[in-house]
Specification:
One of its GO terms (molecular function) is oxidoreductase activity. Residues 7-170 form the Nitroreductase domain. Keywords: Flavoprotein, FMN, NAD, NADP, Oxidoreductase. Helix 1 (3-9) crosses helix 5 (112-132), helix 2 (24-34) runs antiparallel to helix 5 and helix 3 packs antiparallel against helix 4. Helix content is 39%, strand content 15%. By secondary structure, the chain is an alpha+beta fold. The chain has helices spanning 3-9, 24-34, 57-70, 76-90, 112-132, 148-153; strands spanning 46-52, 95-101, 136-140, 161-169. It has one domain (3-171): 3-Layer(aba) Sandwich (NADH Oxidase). The protein has a 4-stranded antiparallel sheet with strand order 1-2-4-3, covered by helices on one side.
């Protein structure tokens, strides 16, 4: 598959076969693709935390702890719905990779905004590499992934941030909904 095909075929999906384990070679290739993203002054201000199988449980429990604390005044019925939703945020794919902003303290030329943009490019590389390997993916963000319980599970420093969690797995491409995008010409101004 060439890069144009990967760009056009890439989709965010939650339709994974949880019982189909991914190869470590594929996971390593996906992370390797991330490290080829542009990085201003070569700060490479990223690190990756891979979770699969049972190793996802501490992450799930940390996410659940955040939700239970945030909604401690919710009714038991409402809390049960939130717990069920948390499964879809932490356990719905066989593999998850947390992408962490970790300032390169050895490179004083780093800039936070540039580093975050670089990490976004790294994540896009991961998604495209996954697509080229016929692996389904979704990039998820949100406060829960940067909560104190999750940061503790990931053994993160105070100044580190989870920029996103990439969920990966095998799926059935024909069940993935079509993506509708605005035509590029409508979003382009030539001057």
């Amino acid at each position: 598959m060439n890069v144009q095909e990967a760009i056009r075929l890439r989709r965010s999906t939650k339709l994974f076969k949880d019982d189909e384990k991914m190869s470590h070679t594929d996971i390593k290739d996906i992370i390797e693709a991330a490290t080829h993203a542009p990085t201003h002054h070569f700060t490479e201000a990223w690190r990756f935390i891979v979770m699969e199988g049972e190793s996802r449980m501490p992450f799930y429990n940390a996410c659940l702890s955040f939700v239970e604390d945030k909604f401690k005044d919710a009714t038991s019925e409402e809390m049960e719905k939130r717990r069920d939703k948390m499964v879809s945020k932490a356990l719905f794919a066989p593999t998850a990779i947390a992408v962490v902003y970790s300032e390169n303290k050895d490179n004083p030329r780093g800039d936070y905004k540039e580093d975050i943009l670089s990490i976004g490019a790294a994540i896009q590389n991961m998604l495209l590499e996954a697509t080229a390997k016929d692996i389904q993916s979704i990039w998820k963000t949100g406060g829960v992934y940067n909560s104190a319980p999750v940061k503790e599970v990931f053994n993160m420093d105070e100044d580190e941030e989870v920029i996103g969690v990439i969920f990966l797995g095998k799926g059935e491409r024909d069940k993935i909904p079509k993506r509708i995008r605005t035509n590029a010409e409508e979003k382009t101004t030539w001057i």
